[in-house]
Amino acid sequence: MDVKTTRISPADIERQREFCEKIHERSAALPAAPLAYVDTYGCQQNEADSERIRGYLREMGYGFTQDENAADVIVINTCAIREHAEDRVFGNIGALVHAKRRHPGQIICLCGCMAQEPRVAEKIRASYRHVDMVFGPHALWKFPELLYRVVTRRGRVFENTDEPGNIAEGIPTVRQDAVKGWVSIMYGCNNFCSYCIVPHVRGRERSRLPEDVLAECREMVEAGYKDITLLGQNVNSYGKDLGLDMDFADLLEAVNAIPGDFLIRFMTSHPKDASQKLFETMARCEKVAPVFHLPFQSGNDRVLKEMNRHYDRSGYLDKVRRLREQIPDVVITSDVIVGFPGETTAEFEDTLSLVEEVRFDALFTFIFSPREGTPAAKMDDPMPMEEKKANFQRLVDAQNAISAEKHAAYIGKTVRCLVDGVCGEEGFALTARTPGNRLVRLERGDESLIGTFQNVAITGSNTWSLWGRLAT
Ligand code: SAH
Ligand code: SF4
Ligand code: F3S
Question: Distance, CA 257 to ligand 3 centroid (Å)?
Answer without folding.
Answer: 31
